[in-house]
Specification:
The chain is α+β, with helices and mostly antiparallel strands and 179 residues long. The chain has helices spanning 82-94, 146-154, 161-178; strands at residues 8-13, 17-25, 31-39, 42-47, 54-61, 66-70, 73-75, 96-108, 117-128, 139-144. It has a 4-stranded mixed β-sheet with strand order 7-4-9-8, sandwiched between helices. The protein has a 3-stranded antiparallel β-sheet with strand order 1-2-3, with no helix packed on it. It starts with 7 loop residues before the first strand and ends with a helix.
Length: 179
């Protein structure tokens, strides 16, 4: 790979991502070329009903050509704070408004090639409203107990990384509350 005297050369600039070729400094002082997918960040939400069931989405993902089971999530809009995005996405995708929202953690999707960071929230005291999915979103609501959701991870029905991280974190968090 070659890069002119610039440290970064944009190959593509889009609505949600940019792709750049970058000369990055390594800890030993050398530099390396990397293809970097820039992403402004996203949120994921674990919506908990009063009876403890989790609201999941069965969503068609055209990029992989499959329906997958996942928690609600979305990209942070310019100028939007992560918790604002979480509240917006929750209501748009599920038709629930959160009375209480708690940040659980944040994590990088795959720091070897992208800057995307996901902010994970737990939403409680849910009030039913009307979902407002984007015209390109195909969503079905699925409500499961945590135990049933964990079984779906083990049997391969849940294969979405953010959902697996969220459910395992919730299982650990719930276990710690009882010990």
């Amino acid at each position: 790979m070659t890069l002119s005297d610039k440290k970064t050369e944009y190959i593509y600039k889009g609505k949600k991502i940019n792709l750049r070729l970058a000369r990055l400094k390594l800890p030993d002082g050398r530099s390396a070329f990397r293809e970097v997918v820039e992403h402004r960040g996203s949120v994921a939400i674990i919506p908990l009903l009063d009876d403890g069931r989790i609201v999941l989405l069965r969503q068609y993902r055209p990029v992989i050509g499959e329906w997958i089971l996942e928690i609600p999530a979305g990209t942070i809009e310019p100028g939007e704070r992560p918790h604002e995005c979480a509240l917006r996405e929750l209501e748009e995708e599920t038709g629930y408004r959160a009375g209480k929202i708690t940040k659980l953690l944040e994590f990088y999707v795959s720091p070897g090639y992208t800057t995307e960071k996901i902010y994970l929230y737990k939403a409680e005291n849910l009030q039913k409203t009307k979902p407002r999915p984007e015209p390109y979103e195909f969503l079905e609501i699925v409500e499961l107990t945590l135990s049933d959701a964990l079984d779906k991870i083990l049997n391969g029905d849940i294969r979405d990384a953010k959902t697996i991280i969220a459910l395992l974190y919730l299982a650990y968090y719930e276990r710690e509350k009882t010990t």
